[in-house]
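Obj: model holo form, ligand = adenosine monophosphate.
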Amino acid sequence: MQSFEALGLSGQIVAAIRKLGFEQPTPVQSKAIPVLLEGNQDVVALAQTGTGKTAAFGLPLIELIDESDRTTQALVLAPTRELCMQITTDFENFTRAVKPLNIVPVYGGASIAEQIRRIKKGAQIIVATPGRLMDLLERRVINLERIEFVVLDEADEMLNMGFKDDIDTILSQTSDEKNVWLFSATMPREVRQIASTYMNNPMELTVGEKNQGNQNIEHQYMVVDEKDRYAALKRIVDYNLDIFGVIFCRTKVDTQRVAEHLMKDGYNADALHGDLTQQQRDKVMKSFKSKALQILVATDVAARGIDVSNITHVIHMNLPDEIEFYTHRSGRTARAGKTGISIAIITRKEVSKIRQIEKVIQTKFIKKEVPTGAEVCEKRVLNIVHRLREVPLANREIDHFLPSVYDELKDLSKEEVIKRFTALEFNHFLDYYRDAPDLNRSEKSDRSDRDRGESYRGAGGDRLFINLGKMDGLDAGKLLGLICDRAKVSREIIGRIDLKGAYSFFEVEKDFTNSIRDAIHGFEYKGRMVRIEITNEGQGDSNRGGGRDRGRGDRKRGGGGWEKKKRW
Ligand code: AMP
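Output (holo structure tokens):
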């Protein structure tokens, strides 16, 4: 392994980073630093977050900036406010006691007047989000013509977030002589396009295999039913006693809901998403970074680029729509050479997505079982026993109280004391997990539950009547599509479908019954009012004869009597 000195960095800067605990360069630093220090080459570096990429571009940049020149010489673009702040702090740590540089972060959600004031004092390096930089360019506060270095950090993320036009505008205002250093965790077509349009014969640097993710992450998945995702999450958290983790959800609403459920269930959790004010987000991040908060529930966008050390687990409540997001999510753990675990909670239908992700990140996932209630309890009991053994007894004050404790317990045997102590710590877990079902589902099924005629009803589902059937030109697939599109629910929460002539029955997970009924009941489909009823009392369709009549009747009546008439 090379030393930092051998990469060409000055003694001063090496001493500064040693104080930060940087003993050896990381692979991306070994590759990038000597090339970037030359200061005359465009570079595209494929590097995951957490691999030390900020120092890989930051250290050479700091060496190359002329401290006696107060003009803006370097621009670093990053996708989020959090990342801008992080880069600025890192740069300040690198430069402290090396050379006095004026580094100014600019991002939305903070006072633009204050940012303008700081820029006017002579910002040698500006670290910006594209949106806020555009604002400042329009106000003619910044002139990019004399910029010598442009760093695009997490370029793929910036493009994912819709900053393509802003980046185009910004880069087109810089001089042809500048160098562009582009860092990206993935290399989709759009990133290549930026490279080919704005970069001059860039040198490509890759660490490890192309597209290969962080090797220190163990990727796991667990297969459950849709309705059991939250229960599975709780088991994972209960089983991993020292978890310090980020849980990703796909939407802000889900994020808030999962966080609220966890809090209500007594976990040390909070939400991070775009509907919170910047102040609220800062507060949550601060307490997560200080480890006062144990579980952060976040959306992809909100948690982008966050660098919190020692995250043990990343849990995916759902897989993201974009495979690249998976890389960004799981990159929150296993940072700076540490190891970490990424667990995807999936349904059987998502197994194929896991296979796709495996291909892209070139790493195999390990199928794990959701711990059973008994396993969770056993793990926690053993933990208590372990803590009991390890508890420090050096505190002399305790001796003072012991005689009365012995006296209080004198009629109990040792076994009874142990039993009672365990129960005291433990009863609520035992209560919760008593009779807890196995949440695991087999991943292998080429026929759906619906085809096999499995019923949700025994497992807490409802059977619904709908006055649409074959006579409306529907088959089971079309009806399923209609229900799911209209009610915006996943296909997996629908059970068996019984398609009849003028009406049908379908089964649905109980939690979704009302939302499906509210979304569909009263809509008009091909000129007919749609009606939904809960009909749990009978499975046989023969006793729905009334339904059939009513169904036809509706057709004739044209839906008279329904309060609302909405178009499908
Ligand atoms: P980054 O990929 O730049 O977000 O860095 C991830 C983490 O690794 C940060 O907390 C850095 O402070 C840390 N780090 C970067 N380079 C090194 C190094 N050479 N040795 C130890 N830690 C490092």
